[in-house]
Write a structure and sequence with these properties.
By secondary structure, the protein is of the alpha/beta class. It has one domain (10-223): TIM Barrel (Alpha-Beta Barrel). The chain is 31% helix and 19% strand. It has an 8-stranded parallel sheet with strand order 1-8-7-6-5-4-3-2. β7 (178-182), α6 and β8 (200-203) form a beta-alpha-beta unit. The longest helix is centred in the last third of the chain and has 14 residues, at 160-173. The protein starts with 9 loop residues before the first strand and ends with a helix. It binds D-xylitol-5-phosphate and zinc ion (ZN). Zinc ion is lined by residues 14, 37, 39, 70, 182, 202. Substrate binds at residues 14, 70, 149-152, 182-184, 204-205. Keywords: Carbohydrate metabolism, Cobalt, Isomerase, Manganese, Metal-binding, Zinc. It is an enzyme of class 5 (isomerase). This is Ribulose-phosphate 3-epimerase. One of its GO terms (biological process) is pentose catabolic process.
């Protein structure tokens, strides 16, 4: 857990792409990244399983980096206490996994009460418009640029329209809600995402497939500096 404030660009390596047999070393290999992105999948909200609170807690125990926990699970409200205790600094839930907009705002408030930054995420087919007047309730807006569930998929550039709409709304309303993008981010796609207005960039395979991860984090950060 960390309490530092953030300034863009924020690079968030996703440990979904790490070698799980050497997870501690893998996290240390990206020690120069601002955040560590932790993808939680339940095999129901998405057709894949990853890991849960125990792995999250273990990662929290070996780094002071901000833990950015992305819940791709049903019933996220039942789990936020657990992930806050496990060391999450940001908890992001999917709006498709909650009943309605009121439930989303209530869950964001609950996450903030736990002393954790609250984020919402939207899948590629979910419109952003209903959320543009609710951004003050959130510290983070995570735009999925692939269908959630798996690493290593192709970036969907049309998702940058959502980023532009978020950027305008956040700036017009004078908010400091961060815009994060997740899925297919690499040296080929990060600059256009930064130009569209993203502050934080999740990258899994693009970083962990490299021999020198720290150099790739640095490379991505440079390309995202607009
Ligand atoms: C996908 C996850 C992503 C994933 C990104 O459901 O939310 O965070 O790890 O992987 P890459 O960067 O390989 O697309
Ligand atoms: Zn993710």
């Amino acid at each position: 857990m960390t309490s530092s404030s953030f300034s863009a660009p924020i690079i968030a390596p996703s440990i979904l792409a790490a070698d799980f047999t050497r997870l501690g070393e893998e996290v240390k290999s990206v020690a120069n990244a601002e955040w560590i992105h932790v993808d939680i999948m339940d095999g129901h909200f998405v057709p894949n399983l990853s890991f849960g609170p125990d792995i999250t807690k273990a990662v929290d125990g070996i780094t002071d980096q901000t833990l950015d926990v992305h819940l791709m699970i049903q019933e996220p409200a039942q789990w936020v206490d657990t992930y806050a205790k496990a060391g999450a600094d940001c908890i992001i839930f999917h709006v498709e996994a909650v009943e309605d907009e009121a439930a989303a705002l209530a869950l964001a408030a609950k996450i903030r009460e736990l002393g954790v930054r609250a984020g919402f995420s939207i899948k590629p087919n979910t419109p952003i418009e209903p959320w543009l007047d609710k951004l003050s309730h959130f510290d983070l807006a995570l735009v999925m640029s692939v269908e959630p569930g798996f690493g290593g998929q192709k970036f969907m550039p049309e998702m940058l329209d959502k980023v532009r709409k978020l950027r305008s709304a956040i700036d017009e309303q004078g908010l400091d809600t961060l815009i994060e993008i997740d899925g297919g981010i690499s040296a080929d796609t990060i600059a256009q995402s930064a130009e569209a207005g993203c502050d934080a960039f999740v990258a899994g395979s693009a970083i962990f497939k490299q021999a020198d991860r720290a150099a790739e984090v640095e490379n991505l950060r440079t390309l995202a500096t607009v």
